[in-house]
Write a structure and sequence with these properties.
There is one protein chain. With 634 residues, this protein is of the alpha/beta class. It has three domains: 249 residues, Rossmann fold; 154 residues, Thiamin diphosphate (ThDP)-binding fold, Pyr/PP domains (Rossmann fold); 129 residues, Rossmann fold, CATH 3.40.50. It is 38% helix and 16% strand. Helix 15 runs parallel beside helix 17. The radius of gyration is 28 Å and the shape is globular. The chain starts with 19 loop residues before the first helix and ends in a 6-residue tail after the last helix.
Length: 634
Amino acid sequence: MDFQLLPLISSPAELKAMNDQQLVQLAKEIREALCMIVSDRPAHFASNLGVVELCIALHQVFDFSKDRLIWDTGHQIYPHKLVTGRFPQFSTIRKKGGLMGYPNPAESDYDLFVTGHAGASVSTVLGLQAGDDLVHPEEGRKSVAVIGDGALPSGVVFEALNNAAELNKDILVILNDNKMGICPRVGGLAKYLDKARSAPFYNGLKKDVSWLLNKLPLVGEPTREVLGNMKDAVKSFLHGGKLFEEMGFRYIGPVDGHDLSSLREYLQMAKEIKGPVLLHVFTEKGHGFKPAEADPVGFHAPSPFSRDDDSGVIFLKKGGSKSYTDTVSDAILHKMRTDSRVCVLTAAMCEGNKLQTIRSEFPDRFFDTGICEGHTVAFAAGMAKAGMRPIVDIYSTFLQRSFDHIFQEVALQNLPVVFAMDRAGVCGPDGPTHHGMYDNAYMRVFPNITIMAPGDEADVTQMVDLSLKLPGPSSIRYPKANTVTIPREVAPVELGKAEVHSQGKDGIFLAFGTLFTDCVKAAEKLRSDGLDVGVVNARFLRPLDTSAFFPTLEQGGFVIAVEEGTLNGGFCSAVLEAANAAGLDTRRIKCLGIPDRFIEHGERGELLADLGLDAVGLLMAARAMVEKAPVASA
């Protein structure tokens, strides 16, 4: 497509001068730019297609060079990036060194927060407005949150709505209702929104009915009570926004999110209302691209595809390799077929965690709670107390949101909840909001939790089996990566027991997790260079198998502890602490992991290489240890 308008947009101010015909053309160009990106690499797609008109209208009505805008969740940020002057760099999105696939204040002043987790937008917008009212009262700034219906059930949203009603600040919450999260939305609030979607347009009926009642002549209390009840009944019948009005918001909607003219009109109306306003906008996920309209789940973040312009057929380029996510899901499915106590809970990530077969085969033992991670963990604790064996299957980075419930409801009660933590370690193009860097550290601080990580595919099924036999909580972390299996006679997975893959006179790699495979490659190369370096597949962070590396230290060899997680408080810290407590020389221990900084986006292999966590980096670390001091065989 020949882009005519997008290259001319250096700031959103230029949208205000465009006529309706130009805006329709701009929307087409934005969608074409989205299609071009996804033809080249995996990226968030259907959600961005659905907010094109909403994004354009927002930037026409508001001036976000001074007003405030937060997108929740931030993966629907692509049209916003295009109309804020980033079209020249758009081809770099989700590539190492290029644009982030989420809002990024380092890229533009129009991005205020890096928003990769759902639900915080109402809180941050309320804080921005309260702060601006104190710091910049003369500027009359407006604050807007765009929140999806999938994110709406998050507990923090209702905390914010409650506080917003009390503060009565001039904030606008736009509910982008497309009947979807990543998968179709679930729960009672979803049903409520379905009713609101089908209701006639509503704007402040409560105010109108109250005015009518105030005009009535004085009547007795029973009559007034009846009229009051009638008012509530009329409100309930005519609109679906009663919940939000009862919480102190002026409700407007529902509004067609793809009608630019209407959107501008209602956004202007909402802009002029004092106090908190909720504008209910219904959109279609995947709008403007028929395959995505038909399959919004499959096109949420699809594999790269090509388009046949004649037939409209989409050719998806599917990868054939099996991932750790697939392997864990298969292992869980097998256990559910053999043990009726096993159940699975996830927080709106059925698709990402490859749980579709489990959901279909065991609907009574599969629970999608929506984007409510804290509730999910507490819910699982109740199920465990009742005698079930719940598996909480949530990305490592998202599980952080339930930190207190892991502590209070699970670890403190010593309940047999299994945490299956997908996307542990470097998570590729999704970047710092999604990298699973911290679970080793945050799980390790709580007593009672057994902490595991498979070295390769051969460990996965055994670890799932073991976790479901333990009397207390456990966690299994695994990366977003294709599986690898190291040829060997696989040792049985036994509680707190490492697997010694090979011995080494000069030293060992002590690997926790799937970097075990890179350690094996590095050790093989070192042996060809004349260095005898062994490899240990640690398997457990707790209990830590000190017998697997203490002898090496006692004999003067080096230990290179390796993890795909933060070095602050994680596996490597546990190794150092254990050696120190035993009075061993910790100078012979080298820690390799994620340094004390946030890691930007890029392909997994690129990032691991930059961090010195690929086979080449491990090899260099071992050589440096040899040069640092005499080795045991000298």
